[in-house]
């Protein structure tokens, strides 16, 4: 192999290694979800003050809960898979918050299908899981532009399926003071500590 060929191969390998390093956040993330989680922890990107309509028809904004940590999940009421698990999890977390007398966390479920998920349907979703409005808000984006914004700002993937629904992330998005500070699994044991920790 000629020196010129060796140099070309070495440069190509360096380029590929650099691309791999960049696309995996320093070889720490090999799926899209783990990449999102890593980037949120490292960069804590800002999110805008999303305007939402809750299950009573009231307009609310993220800034309404600036003194709390928001745990944001994305759901749609026709979902027959992970949205049910998220509803059960939020109901469990809400009971744990009430038992601990904690109000440092606010649970927020946001619909990714606002055209279908009217306030009435959102209220039915809450009722299905026995949640109350004391610490759990269920809402939809006030318009399609806000839906696009929150998808872009969180990096959420929403993929239409063949059955009229969506495939989407079941991760929880931790928002504090207008920044996305963490993305975690809904099964993350750190959630209970978040609820009871006074720090």
From TrEMBL:
Signal peptide: none annotated. Transmembrane segments: none annotated. Disulfide bonds join 79-83. Keywords: Copper, Disulfide bond, Metal-binding. It comes from the Bacteria. Cu cation binds at residues 79, 83. GO terms for molecular function: metal ion binding. Pfam families: SCO1-SenC. PANTHER family: ELECTRON TRANSPORT PROTIN SCO1/SENC FAMILY MEMBER, LINALOOL DEHYDRATASE_ISOMERASE DOMAIN-CONTAINING PROTEIN. Belongs to the SCO1/2 family. This is Protein SCO1/2. It comes from Thiocapsa rosea.
């Amino acid at each position: 192999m000629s020196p010129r060929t060796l140099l070309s191969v070495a440069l190509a390998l360096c380029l590929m290694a650099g691309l791999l390093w960049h696309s995996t956040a320093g070889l720490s993330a090999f799926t899209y979800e783990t990449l999102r989680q890593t980037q949120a922890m490292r960069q804590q990107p800002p999110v805008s003050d999303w305007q939402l309509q809750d299950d009573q028809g009231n307009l609310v904004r993220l800034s309404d809960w600036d003194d709390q940590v928001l745990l944001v999940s994305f759901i749609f009421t026709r979902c027959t898979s992970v949205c049910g698990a998220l509803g059960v999890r939020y109901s469990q977390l809400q009971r744990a918050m009430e038992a601990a007398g904690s109000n440092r966390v606010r649970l927020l479920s946001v619909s990714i299908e606002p055209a279908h998920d009217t306030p009435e349907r959102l209220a039915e979703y809450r009722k299905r899981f026995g949640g109350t409005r004391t610490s759990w808000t269920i809402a939809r984006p006030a318009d399609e532009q806000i839906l696009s914004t929150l998808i872009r700002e969180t990096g959420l993937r929403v993929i239409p399926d063949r059955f009229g629904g969506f495939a989407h992330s079941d991760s929880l998005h931790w928002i504090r003071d207008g920044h996305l500070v963490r993305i975690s699994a809904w099964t993350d044991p750190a959630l209970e500590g978040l609820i009871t920790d006074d720090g």
